[in-house]
Amino acid sequence: MISTEKIRQLSNNQINYIVGARLGNVSPLLLEQIDKTMLRKDGYTIRLKTENGYLICSYSIVRYRKDKLRWINR
């Protein structure tokens, strides 16, 4: 992954970038916003502006099923 400082440096130099991240790394407030905005429809995507740039989230029924099984088996 990439640090917040590196993201700032890229932005300051007008370099476009894509960074992969897990939702476990976002704030509870942002996670709540994603939950309220996201439709539970396979392939649905949202784009949210954050202090570090845009966050793009997509819903996957396959990912949902895998995560659901993981939580049940804990």
What are the key terms here?
single chain; 74 residues; alpha+beta; two-stranded antiparallel ribbon; 3 helices; 2 strands; 42% helix
Task: Describe what this molecule looks like in 3D.
The chain is an alpha+beta fold and 74 residues long. It has one domain (4-72). It is 42% helix and 16% strand. It is built from 3 helices and 2 strands. The chain has helices at 4-12, 28-37, 61-72, and strands spanning 45-50, 53-58. The longest helix is centred in the C-terminal third of the chain and has 12 residues, at 61-72. The mean pLDDT is 87.
Question: Which regions are unreliable across 5 or more consecutive residues at pLDDT < 50?
Answer: none
Q: How many strand segments?
A: 2
Domain module count: 1
Oligomer: single chain
**What is the global morphology?**
elongated
**H/E topology pattern:** HHEEH
What's the rounded overall pLDDT mean? 87
Q: What share of the residues lie within helices?
A: 40-55%
Spatial gap, N to C terminus: 27 Å
Question: Strand arrangement, largest sheet?
Answer: 1-2
Our Rg estimate from Cα atoms comes to: 15 Å
Counted by DSSP, the helix tally is 3
Question: Which structural class best describes the helix and strand composition?
Answer: alpha+beta
Largest sheet: 2 strands, antiparallel
Share in β-strands: 15-25%
